Amino acid sequence: MKPTIDGVVVKNLRLIPDERGWLMEILRCDDAIFEKFGQVYCTTAYPGVVKAWHYHKKQTDNFTCVHGMMKVALYDARENSPTRGNLMEFFVGEKNPILISVPPGVYHGFKGIGTETAFFVSIPTLPYNYDEPDEFRLPPDTDEIPYDWGLTPGLKHG
Predict the structure, then answer these.
(1) Cβ pair 137, 53 in contact under 8 A
(2) What pLDDT digit, counting tens, does each position of 134-145 carry?
(3) Architecture of 9-15+25-127 per CATH?
């Protein structure tokens, strides 16, 4: 697996604990990684479930896992990219708090790993368009992307 994809940025997140609990800033408007705000949403993945593959033509996705752990994979399918064909893989969550910024045209997906539901927070640069979604999908086991999610037989993935 090649280690980089042009335009993908990773930000290490810092936990700030005290006697009440902890705080973790995910994305700030004064971060170099910040482009613009579209919306914030949370999605989950049960252990062993894969949600992949998709990409966007217009928006940049910024995301992290705030509870549990996820395996995140990225694939550069952009025609004119210097890193076309590269894959990246991350383990994101409580044990590795990072924010991943994925530019338009890069396929991405994730798998819940561990024994508990993983909570994924996304801050895309555009709001979801219900009439014309900026979302283009392939199944997790597509032959177009040379990546093996280790799909669990009988589980619904997608």
Answers:
(1) yes
(2) 999 999 999 999
(3) Sandwich (2.60)
